[in-house]
Amino acid sequence: KEAIGRHNLSPSLDFSKEGIIDIPVLRKDSAIKNPEIDINPEYNPFQGEEVYKRRKTEGWEKFYQKYTNENLQPDLNFDGEESDNGSSGTRYLQILNTYIVTSVKSGFMIIDQRRANERITYENIIRTLQKNTRITQQSLFPMTVELSPSDYQVFEEISSHIEKLGFDIRSFGKNSIIIHGAPAFMSSYNFKDTIENMLEQYKNLQSDINIDELTRLARSASSASAIPYGKKLNEQEMRELVDKLFGCDNPYYSPSGEIIVKIITREGIENIFKEVVL
């Protein structure tokens, strides 16, 4: 340390630089004064003239008219608006997890979701049978189903036609079958219930002599695999269902003749609210 100090090898401390705060030393006998605030005792903030100037109100009618015309009226035509998933187009609303509602130029269109799905599946089955272009989705875990004697008898009678639909089903002992796969166009993944319902529907239609065997099978399969009432659909699922429905040859009636689509006109809606209670 001594050598470093003698030969000036370390920088010296300079306390005379500018910018250093000068704090005076308080003497022992100095008097301490309390801080004072300079105020005007005559000042009263509640007296005097008002200095606020009101903004000019010229042209307020235009401002009001702009927002009245653009935003305050409900828009019943959803065409072209952006949906939650970012896609633009017609918007859809599901009511009671049963009906799909959308706006059209003449009013509102209500679609029965189960009947719509039934119509779509029915026409897919008819095309499959006509063109013999079945596509089977194989199940990772084959399912064994035990049928009633009457259902098993019906299955044996129509098993060749069921295979043409795209089902991969084989007999397995007494009154039992193994489901290895089902048609790719079917939305239901509960193939056990689908097969049982299909056989039950087929038996119910056997008494109708006006229906041929393949049509009876198509109606039974489409009814058994249709999406159930009460199933919640997101907007994309509703959009796809409606698009497929109106791609059908007959989108307005189910295979059994029930109404699928109903239009409630604007006039009909207005008539509902014309009733006056005295």
Relative helix content: 25-40%
| Protein structure class | alpha+beta
- Taking pLDDT < 50 over at least 5 consecutive residues as the criterion, the unreliable ranges are 57-83
Q: What percentage of the residues does DSSP assign to strands (E)?
A: 15-25%
Multimeric status of the protein:
single chain
Shape: elongated
Structural overview:
- It is a single chain.
- This protein has a domain at 118-225: MutL, C-terminal domain, regulatory subdomain (Ribosomal Protein S8, Chain: A, domain 1), CATH 3.30.1370.
- Strand 1 and strand 2 (99-104) form a beta hairpin.
- The protein has a 4-stranded antiparallel beta sheet with strand order 1-2-3-7. A 3-stranded antiparallel beta sheet has the order 4-6-5, covered by helices on one side.
- Helix 3 (113-131) crosses helix 6 (213-225), helix 3 (113-131) crosses helix 7 and helix 5 (191-205) packs across helix 6 (213-225).
- The chain has helices at residues 2-6, 60-70, 113-131, 149-165, 191-205, 213-225, 235-245, 266-272, and strands spanning 93-95, 99-104, 107-112, 136-146, 168-171, 176-183, 261-265.
- The termini are far apart.
- Mean pLDDT is 76; it is low at 57-83.
- The longest helix has 19 residues, at 113-131.
- The chain has 278 residues and is an alpha+beta fold.
